[in-house]
Structures are given as structure tokens and as C-alpha cells.
Structure of Formate dehydrogenase subunit gamma:
Amino acid sequence: MIVEQLVVTHAGSRGALLPLLHAIQREIGFIPDEAVPMIAAGLNLSRADVHGVVTFYHDFRRQPAGRHVVKFCRAEACQARGSAAIETAMALKLGVAMGDTRDDGHISLEAVYCLGLCATGPNAMVDGQPFSRIDHAAVSRIADMVSV
Ligand code: FES
């Protein structure tokens, strides 16, 4: 199993947890809950330590991502530009709650906390492509884009 191999590769290195978690996510797309005891044992940490790091960092997924990933900015500058209402519209239009993946596995909607485009919010990243000044019309365009 790839996770076991990665744990063995990283065991014994100082500060190995974050590099190991990134390596697992890069290889299989998420950090399975079942991997937490193996990671803890391999790095001589408690399961709570590993679980705490996995759940603290928004970049780590605990389930496979959808085919399309919409990362929507929730940080202050975008909030000041009306992102909360746009986020609600986005979730409704995409048919998925923030932080979740649609039941058909087609779309994931994830929170991010600043994309570095603060002056042009509300902002999102759709399959790695930035979108700025998102209004209700843009929400519809994004929904059409990720519908295929
Ligand atoms: S606050 Fe949204 S991009 Fe910076």
C-alpha cells in the first residue's frame, strides 16, 4: 500500500508529519481516516496529534475530491466585498454545501482563506483557474463550467 511505503520513507525524519501528509495527499488525493493510526505509529506520535493536524489545515482532504474543485475565498477582504451572499448562491447553484462533495462526486466546494487577489473579490479558484469580482452572473457561468 502506498501509504505504508510513504510512512516508512518519512519515519525517522524530524518534522516528518507535514511532508508525509502532503506526500499522501499528492499520491492518493486525500488523507484516509484509516491511515491515521499507521501514520501515528510510524512517526511515534499520538493518533490525536495526527488527527489534529489533518483537521486543522484546510488543504488536507479527508475524502476524495470531486471531479471539479471550487475553492471559494472566505477571508476578510472578500467578506468586505460581499462574499457571504455569493458563497450562498454558489452552494445553491452547485448543489453542494461548503466543505462538502456532491453525492455524485462531481463537484467539491472548499473554503480557502485568501487567494492573494484581495482587491478584486469575491474570489474563487475553479479547477486551478482564478475567478475575481464574482457576482451572481459569474456564479451561473462557473456552475455551467463545472457541469460537464
Ligand atoms: S481575502 Fe479573498 S483573495 Fe484575499
